[in-house]
Specification:
Elements (H helix, E strand, L loop, with lengths): L15 H19 L3 E5 L4 H14 L3 E7 L7 H12 L3 E6 L1 H8 L5 H20 L5 E5 L4 H6 L19 E3 L7 H10 L4 H4 L19 H20 L8 E5 L5 E5 L2 E14 L7 E2 L4 H14 L3 E6 L13
Length: 326
């Protein structure tokens, strides 16, 4: 199936030369649009946000301010790693905001996945508005929207960076990679000089662990998702699977099952492992993980993560499943 329904003028970026051509076209376009204005952009730490930040940095330099928001839904130690990488490779202005309590308080008791995504998106918008008011001449908001986000926002699910901005934000939207697929973003990032640690960093959704802690988010279940995910990533790294599998993570749904430990009955959550490969995020196949590795991961999760008593492996491709559970 051909998922490339972009404008006819948009070439598929498959080579470094095409990536350089894209960059050389985007930088003067950005300069022309922005002028002497200033841009605020999100820096989640993923390749999309870093590529947008790098493009804007080359175009307008110090007139760019990046904002990294720790919404309490990031992976283990992720915020610290994002900040370190930024300072190592960028050099423009960075604002770091710890908004964990603000987001989790807003999300308390909310189980509908669309409502959760919208709450997260609106809170991001509010935070950007608050910070933008502090920056003289801030006129634009840069975002790392890519083409699968645009497509899936029409009838599949809401993406936090597509159509979720507050009407009172007062900033004009700039989306320089809006018509790129993920594989193209990586090629562009390589040509921008970003390190492999950024370019090949595992994709991570804007709502973060909030859509992997399905149903109404609780802090204890969120912590269980974070810890089980860290174990999975550590074991994939040890086994050399981190570059073989496009995206891998754990989910903890909002239901429990019976278990037993030390002759005591348990009523705990299951941990679901998902590992998929894809070229454009529009379809995905399941990675066949060696049994010995799955058994080792299972043993560690059951012994090291509080509140869980089962580990399951999701075998569903996309379609008909999506990559994420929510």
């Amino acid at each position: 199936m051909n998922n490339d329904t972009r404008p006819i003028s948009m070439k598929h970026i498959t080579t470094p030369n095409l990536a350089r051509s894209f960059i050389s076209e985007q930088i003067p376009l950005l300069r022309s649009k922005i002028g002497d204005g200033k841009v605020v952009t999100a820096l989640s730490g993923g390749v999309d946000s870093f590529v947008v930040a790098a493009l804007l940095s080359k175009a307008i330099g110090k007139n760019l301010t990046c904002i990294h928001v720790d919404h309490g839904l990031l992976r283990k130690n992720e915020s610290e790693q994002v900040i370190k990488t930024f300072h190592d490779v960028m050099g423009t202005n960075l604002i770091h905001i710890n908004a964990t309590d603000r987001f989790l308080d807003k999300l308390e008791g909310i189980s509908d996945p669309e409502k959760k995504r919208k709450i997260i998106g609106v809170e991001f918008s509010h935070i950007f508005e608050e910070e933008a008011r502090k920056i003289k001449d801030a006129k634009f908001l840069g975002q790392g929207t890519i083409y699968p986000d645009v497509i899936e926002s029409h009838g599949i699910k809401t993406h936090h960076n597509v159509g979720g901005l507050s009407e009172d934000l007062g900033l004009e939207l700039i989306e320089p990679i809006k018509f790129l697929f993920k594989d193209e973003v990586r090629i562009v990032g390589k040509e921008l000089g970003l390190p492999d640690a950024v370019i090949y960093r595992q994709p991570f959704p804007g709502p973060g662990l909030g859509i992997r802690c399905t149903g109404a988010i609780t802090r204890d279940r969120l912590e269980a998702v974070r810890e089980s995910d860290a174990i999975l990533r550590e074991e994939f790294m040890k086994s050399g699977l981190q570059n073989k599998v496009w995206q891998y993570f754990t989910i903890i749904p909002d239901y429990r099952s019976t278990g037993v430990h030390n002759n005591q009955r348990l009523w705990d959550w299951p941990v679901i492992i998902r590992a998929v490969n894809t070229k454009d995020a529009m379809s995905a196949e399941i990675e066949e993980i060696p049994w010995v590795i799955l058994k080792r991961i299972t043993k560690r999760i059951l012994s090291e993560v509080s509140g869980v008593n089962r580990v399951l492996y999701d075998l569903s491709p996309k379609p008909c499943a999506t990559i994420e559970w929510e």
